[in-house]
Specification:
It is a single chain. By secondary structure, this protein is mostly beta strands. It contains one helix and ten strands; from the N terminus they run E-E-E-E-E-E-E-E-E-E-H. The longest helix has 5 residues. The chain is globular and about 35 Å long. The N terminus is likely disordered.
Length: 113
């Protein structure tokens, strides 16, 4: 059974339309946006403050971005976001263009089969 997703950290919704969402997110050490994927939208993370770690699967990869840097995760690629180190991170999360969907990473096998 899949647990209900609870947004970690501080969330400030900047824009929400039918095909794009923009949020300002702040994660403290120990917080995470857990493993998940999207089938229609790209997640683009733009670091505002601190250091953001984006871990991805298929293939396994880790990207660390600092203030002023960004990284895009394409549809169907499982990923999670955490702060790097002992300081909080603040970032913009741009999701689009397309109808928003979010799936826990454990659901990925069902989609592939």
């Amino acid at each position: 059974m899949t647990e209900t997703y609870v947004r970690a950290g501080k969330v400030n919704v900047i824009a929400k339309g039918s095909d794009v969402r923009v949020q300002e997110r702040t994660l403290a050490p120990g917080n995470e946006i857990p493993w998940h994927y999207h089938t229609l939208v790209t997640d683009t993370t733009y670091c505002i403050e601190g250091t953001v770690r984006i871990e991805m699967l298929d293939p396994q990869e880790q990207v660390v971005i600092t203030r002023g840097q960004s990284h895009a995760v394409p549809p169907n690629r499982p990923h999670r976001i955490t702060p790097e180190g002992e300081c909080p991170c603040r970032f913009l999360l741009v999701q689009g263009v397309g109808k928003y969907d979010r799936h826990p990473a454990e659901d990925l096998e069902a989609v592939r089969n």
